[in-house]
């Protein structure tokens, strides 16, 4: 099932160039994801998970977003050094992405059919399976859009959110990409629709064997869907490991807090009410652990020295956390 | 869509009716045409004759209903200044010149402003953006008549590249059209730029990007088509300002269009012509805006499907 | 970092220009103008500006009656400022009031008011001004009237659009539940939220108004002579654009600088106060 | 009938080669009314190059002569019957045959019809024209008119149209292509743009025009007319004096009319001195003769001529008085400096004596600023008057109004203003006096004085040249000493020409538009 690593991110650093100075929104992030594997990226809003995704896609907000260091290796090819034209060719065909809000992510002026067709025309390298419209219908059927023959002629405003997100999914997989990044794809959907949609993603992944990066702040989803996860805080990875290891033995206080603040599976969390304070402003010069100001266990070491990744509490080899206080209360 | 268009059409008609009332009462407030139409040494008999001839001796409401009835048929009476022609004839005769000039000015504005606005937005913060900002600001900072005269002096008298003024071929239209387009370029560039900036931030642009659409297709097919609503809205306003602008520019460049006609008619107290020229302008404006509404519906399925 | 390099620092510069060209002259023309703006030095007619063969007596030259251009421009600032302020205040007041009513009451009132807006836009304002001028002669009041006529619709449309949104807002609903009267809701809850829009829009209208005044003067229906209104100075000097270019050039420059800096300021304000507003 | 401006004409206009034929282009102020029916205009004779009246003018002296359609004329002693002998070889253009008495009768009917708005048409009121034979026509007038020739020449209230064309085509024919009889014939009209004429080959009069085509362009904006002249698009331009300097600096030449064509003045409107006049507003400051004199003396006329007329004008001693016409008094002209000369001390003394401003209910002098085609200096004149008057200590205000608006007020006798006026063409004294100093004038306007009225009544009836001269002189003397108006300047008509194409143009400046004798335009080969 899980095969070769297809995407490796190494020491990625992304800055937003704002008036006040560069904001390190992604700071030295490394991870990899393999074919057939689903990697969850978890964290509060503004922790850098979306920026990581946009960096991989090379569609950072212009002109302020910039990758300032690291490598993004897609089957060994470094995307960071690719030209814009090369990236255009890679996007959609080898890297797919599903955006958060289906209500705004489809162009309101074009029929959904045409939007799928556009993706097919650009990305479908196989080119098989009949005319573009027919393949568009097929794509929609693949993502379980009922009455696809008629729906291809519909405009986004004539469809429900769940239906639109299926269309977005169809667009994302139209090129049969190696990696698909889903950036909180269900946040804007109703609970029941969410489940259907996640199921769909799982099915598609099982069928195509592609790697998936699933960005969310919903640990419930991660538990159901992902094989591994990374937890991000203030642009950095604070903990990573298999879902089983991390859930069993959360090694970073932030992960712990995240888990504690999920009273039930499938509950959306925007802010960690369980933890006082807010994520730090990225402009502040960071000394020590970024989480220290909110961390109940923080001491002077935490406040003065930045922790580096160390093996997590589960003891598994790939479970790592960046914390001086892993052995707290345990 | 049908209902949307019908509603808009009826609204325009209603506006037109109110405008007839305004036009009528205004021309009857602006003093008697008699003083302008008769010589300084006119006799009482001449005055009485003309008053009768123009129907100015009848009660106002009667005059208005006659006016309305005739106006519906496009008849605004005979011109008092251009004897031997009906007012509508005079206006229709001059309108093509204004439309030619306005059309060229519109073309220039669109051809310059839209790409400029789009590029300025796409390359926000670049030197092109700075140039666009300067153009946009300068364009709105000079009175058109002054710009027109300066253009005339520099490009016609000193450099001799174009005729100074007067009616003729395309070369005659270049300078007045530029003078006329100047302000519009400014306004349109600003609008296009800000509309594009807004759209370029939209999620569907991000989606287009991540699905591998080329930059050019993103800018034009995805972003511009959505941003176009704003410049298109402005076309409605533009139609009006080009007509209004024609009043000044046609005077400067001796361009025999409806704007120049309007001034002559007002100064000469040629009520029928004033009324018909204002009505034509208003109809033209309402029509342009009606077309803009239809265009919205054509472009945007959300409007098309409403109601 | 390079987000908006072109605009950076410009608010300060434009504000400075505005103060120097418009505000100080408008307030203190009597003190700083070297000559009486109406005083005709008939022996010194059409004197060129300093550095173009003129003297320090008339730094920017004189017009065809020998009046000092500099003094006329300085005094003209009063008219530019007062037309802008009075015209825009009234235009904004009318437009805002009607926009509030239309957006808040909706229904019939909205339909009627928006129709009136359409009608004002549809009527060629310059022609109406010409027609009115033949009735009453040109006057300051006429110019103000035309200004109001031209700009109120923009305010009405914008204010209505925002009121439509605001009236559905939670805090308005809460106020309504708490028994606040419509007038109070409009005044205490809606108006404060659209003040920014109004300020930005008003700033951006200054340029429109100054140019409009010049255009009216060109057509002979602006502020009556011998008032040294800028537009009139430009319009009056246009005949001598070749030989005595300074008569129209310097007032034109004053207009240019004023409009330029007001628009820059307006842009800046808009970005600051009301990024969603994008009307010109 | 208007010629439609279509895309086709546009293409043709662009494609037309610069004709080998020599074209003279004159750019001028648009006429008040654009029509081929002259009687429907207030008197702008734009058709002058093609259509003729009975009486012509000597281009050098401006005197009436037989260069028009009549070879001679006689009148009876009491000036009520005028008989014109038409030139037998005079022919209409386009083959409409000889000019006959019937054409004159027909034209008089047209010009005096109910739709006539001609200035000065009152002089033809009640006139009857009778064809004595084919080439003799007699006008019978209800009252003596010593200035009857003025109707046919100068003012040109009667222009001869072809009856044959009218019978064949009706007014439509005139609208399309009116047949005239001059050395140039009507070619076309571009509405809003201009009028075109072409040379008549082998003209019946033997006049051979030195160019092939004359184009009159109507351009409202003076700066644009100047640009057209300098860019070589026009050969002749009518320009305000103040921009003529720019043209001269660029190598253009000014050609003035041989005679004064225009007199200017400021009128004290509302000076209704006839007893019991209900229109009299007693608060007008200039009802006091001392104020009128003081105003006259506040004005530095030489400076004014420099400012307004670029120095090319004469100080005018009495408005409406001219050496060419009845009642001219050299004595008044000589006394002018003593009585009207610029003297601020005297002006202030007079004001003090009259108790100005304290004793005046309404001391403000409203000065009218108005635009009048042909007198582009009027707005500046108003400002200049304000400068002069304020310098002397008067309180003034400028009132802006268009000329038609002033006309309305004058007709209602409510123009209580100090306003500019012109006398163009310089009219025969009887006409001028009636217009500007008498209650008999229409509109009844500025100055009405019982003493003048007495003289005027007799003047209008008198047929004895000596007595008439005496009466006119008497009236001029009276208004001079009453300071009835502020006479300003006597000016020529002027055109600015491109000396590369135009050698000269001899014209007298005696018509209502100032220009005539287009056949005299001398072009460079």
Description:
The complex is a heterotetramer of chains A (about 325), B (about 300), C (about 280) and D (about 525). Helices cover about 30% and strands about 25% of the residues of chain A. Chain A has 12 helices and 12 strands. The longest helix of chain A is centred in the middle third of the chain and has 18 residues. About 5% of the residues of chain A have low confidence. By secondary structure, chain C is mainly α. Chain C has one domain: MetI-like (MetI-like fold, Orthogonal Bundle), CATH 1.10.3720. Chain D folds into 3 domains: about 140 residues, D-Maltodextrin-Binding Protein, domain 2 (3-Layer(aba) Sandwich); about 110 residues, Dipeptide-binding Protein, Domain 1 (Dipeptide-binding Protein, domain 1); about 230 residues, Dipeptide-binding Protein, Domain 3 (Dipeptide-binding Protein, domain 3), CATH 3.10.105. Chain D starts with 6 loop residues before the first helix and ends with a strand. Chains in contact: A-B, A-C, B-C, B-D, C-D. Chains A and C meet through loops of A and loops of C. Chain D: It is found in: Periplasm. Chain D: Belongs to the bacterial solute-binding protein 5 family.
- Beta-strand portion of chain D reads 15-25%
H/I helix tally of chain D? 15
CATH architecture of the largest domain in chain D: Roll
Element string of chain A (H = helix, E = strand): EEEHEEHEHHHHHEHEHEEHHHEE
Q: What is the name of the CATH topology of the largest domain in chain A?
A: Rossmann fold
CATH class of the largest domain in chain A: Alpha Beta
Q: Structural class per helix/strand content of chain D?
A: alpha+beta
Question: Count of DSSP E strands of chain D?
Answer: 21
Helical coverage of chain D, percent range: 25-40%
The tally of structural domains of chain A comes to 2
Please give the largest β-sheet of chain A: 8 strands, mixed
| CATH homology superfamily name of the largest domain in chain A | P-loop containing nucleotide triphosphate hydrolases
Keywords (chain D): Signal
Organism (chain D): Pelagibius litoralis
Family (chain D): Belongs to the bacterial solute-binding protein 5 family.
Subcellular location (chain D): Periplasm
